[in-house]
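Archive entry: two folds, one per protein. Generate the first.
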Amino acid sequence: MKLHRLIIGLCFAALLSACGGGGSDSTPATGPVASTLSFPLKSAYSTLVANGYTKRYDVSGSCNGLASEVTAPATGGQTFNGVSVPWSTALTLSINVTTCASITATINTYYDTDYTPLGFSSSGVYSVYLPPPSIPTSIMVGDTGTIGTATNFTGSSSTGTREGQTVVSYVVEPDTASTAIVNLIFKTFDTSGNLKSTEQDRYKISSTGALAPVSKDTLTATTHLILQ
């Protein structure tokens, strides 16, 4: 299943000062800034998918170690849900830890002509967005919304047994005067509507349309992994 996960932080701008004995000078520090700019999320996301990326993380939480994420540039000529699709990508996430079993997962994601995701597949899991998700063209700090819902099946097609669904939403968080943090949130439910996992991906976006992964967070009933 798509391993996209991040912590939603409490983001605010603040000015802190500390005074020592004898009247020493204060030392200011600033926190995240709520930019007033707009950010081109859809075009930035499309460019990231088209070009691919590589990211390395430190792993903490239930396990400790290192992780690497490699997404190949989008290619054509694939079939998804019984039809030919214009684009697809293969994301490989390898987590090497000392306190838990290491894992490697490959997730294939399929897109239409403008890189809107149609669904994804991994080992034993097949997920289809119906209808296709809606990625906002432009966003600002403080924006929230739902991008779409994917129906999950076991096996290698939508003819498998239905497992539940994954609801994808977003929150735009403060960062700097010219950048923001896009927090993509994936909540997966079983067929009875019970929450199974919450996954969050955080990406830094600039007003010029650069988009890059920052950190990931996955929370289930038994495991909490933080990649940053």
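Generate the second and append.
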Amino acid sequence: MHLLKTAALSIGSLLLTAGTASADGTWSVGAFAGVTVDYYIGGDRSDIGVGPFLAYDTERLHLGFDGASYNFIARPDLTVGAGLSLRAEPDFPGGALFSGLDRGTAVEAGVFARQSLGESGYIGGGLRRDISSEHGGYEADLHVGTQFALGRVGVDASIGGKFRDGDLNHYLVGVSASEANGDRSAYDPGSSFIPYVGLTASVPLSDKVTLVGAASYEHLGSTYEDSPLVERNKTGSLGVGLVYQF
């Protein structure tokens, strides 16, 4: 379920940016639950799911359900690295509209960087490209954010945008001429820019247990809304998890 990967990414990002990893390595084990808003025609408007979380982190290395990465530069003010991750195939609903649309899981390689701005701000971004020939496209991301504390609650708020090329968008919402039929017309989406906002929070329950939460919203725009497979031009997610670190 795509919700589970979304929640794992949010939790993993929160733990990494919180600087909880040690030079000797830190294991994070937990579970999470959440809900996402589906944008495909006939899909569940609120997709609810639960799943496990597992990750191993050092100051430079990350291994987890959300992928693997290595930081070539790992300073308190600057992080630069590269990694591998999976993009799960589109969660097409059943029915005639989506019958015959063959999509598989893609393996993507990427680079990323994060630079501190002042005491609490930061700017980050990255580029991920398919290396499995599943869609052949890429996604670039740029965002700014801030981290602060509200009592015992640590908060990370960000705003940014994603650029997706036409090949990736075709994989997600496109219909080729050979896939067109009486239920769906051919559609070549082209590239798109998707603005988004994100919010993550953590509450330490003990020295080893942390309650984490994440929320996100994306405005998909007309590139997605004009697809014969799509019924809404926005999506979002809300999740909560409990993580034990040792």
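Annotation attached to the second fold: The domain at 2-245 is CATH 2.40.160.40 (Porin). The chain has one domain: 2-245.
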